[in-house]
Amino acid sequence: MKDKKFRKKISGFIFSAIAALSTPFLLMGCSTQPTTENVFVTGISKSTTDGGNNYLITYSNGTSSTITIENGKDGSDVTIDDILKKYKEEYGEIEYNEFLNKYLSISTTDNSRIANECLLSCLKVYTEFYTTQDVSTISSWSGFYPPTVRQEKVVNVMCGSAVIYKIEDDFTYVITNYHVVYSANVNEDNGSNFAHKIVGYLYGSDGTPKQDEKNADGYIQYDYGQFALNFTLVGGSVDHDIAILKVPTEDMININPNAKAVTMAETYYVGETAIAIGNPENAGISVTEGVISVDNEYIQLNIDGNTRNYRTIRMDTAIYGGSSGGGLFNSRGELIGITNAGDGTDQNINYAVPLDIVKNVTDNILYYYDGTNTSTVKKIFLGITPTITDSRYVYDSSKGYGNIIETIAVKEITANSIAANWGLAPDDTLVCLIINDEEHNINRNFEMRDLILTIRAGDNISIKYIRKGTECVSPNYTVKESDLTS
Prior knowledge:
Blueprint: E1 25-27, E2 41-46, E3 54-59, E4 64-68, H1 80-91, H2 96-103, E5 104-106, H3 112-118, E6 122-137, E7 148-167, E8 171-176, H4 178-181, E9 197-202, E10 210-214, E11 220-223, E12 229-237, E13 242-248, H5 249-255, E14 263-264, E15 273-278, E16 286-302, E17 307-315, E18 327-329, E19 334-342, E20 350-354, H6 355-368, E21 379-380, E22 384-396, E23 401-413, H7 418-422, E24 429-435, E25 438-441, H8 447-451, E26 460-467, E27 470-473, E28 477-478, E29 484-485
Parallel strand pairs: 14-19
Antiparallel strand pairs: 1-5, 2-3, 3-4, 6-7, 6-9, 7-8, 8-13, 9-12, 10-11, 12-13, 15-16, 15-18, 16-17, 17-20, 18-19, 19-20, 21-29, 22-23, 24-25, 24-26, 26-27, 26-28
């Protein structure tokens, strides 16, 4: 956020990811070990009578089991990968993440290692805007004369945060919030409502702007020091509160060759760890931790003079003015959102732009960026007005979390639209959107809006739907350039 957090006006929905492994760990549900819940490993010892390849695993309830590890030296050599290998030999193939989620959990809540690694992807950001302010001068004769009002040219320096999205040979791209780089209160000298200067610092190479001399136009200049990175605006979406910046990769690597891009999570869910890293109150990059409170919630923000509804994640993780644009990470260090707003009256109610929006908007902007002019989101208009006919929470015990599932039906169809050409009609139930033969299920009302951000000119799209109990598939439609609008 900038110097003040955006205030929520109201409306409401949220979700996140899983857990990193560290020893000691719990083993649950696998038939090669005790099945009682919350039974954990108390010891791993090497056999001395069989050549040293067998290990005795003892559990907290007094039971034990044996696994064979080739070329073992002592109990500390047994890893999770060894246990997974043994499981596959006896019970067949299983995905690594599924094995971890179903059978292993952490016995510690210390996420310091994860947070420290995430710091390699985080920055604090300063943005400059030229403004003009009225300044009152009161003379010693103020009892007889009114104050003199004059206009003064001012540089407003705002603070925010960012994360590294992609590192390429020429440029590195970072994500922040639109409201970090945009101001509705600028004068003509600024050139546009976007910041005329954007500067960032990697964690560990921090700097602070210091006032310098005035330039020829009468504005105070700022010296950002030797560790400053000068960013260029690539583009942004005010509708999603996301902006993309770029900096020469060489400049960044010269400051810290270990800087790295974030890893995007695949999902997120209620109750999952939510670690925020940003520049609260311009006090430097710092870490706070909480959980995701609501998986999908709508709030109202006014960024450019227009009040809009924004889909967000709600978390109880503390963020403050200056945190906007910072990363929200799960306990595996994967990005699940970009922090952007707070309730303003309750510090346990804060918000972030959700993972799907962050990724889809960023990829969309970069796809249409030509290297010169700033880019914005381009999306297709399908002509469907949806409505929710059923909504329920479904818990998946194998994953340990659940999701809200909605039934989405057609309320209205716009005449002469793509949906009308597909033959959709009111009361049809939407099943999935098919993009280039890949089916994308529609289980939430917002998922269609997220998906259209991924559609490009030349893509073939169709839709699967249910009409009066019969599943139908529309004809293919090839997207034209003229179908995409900003």
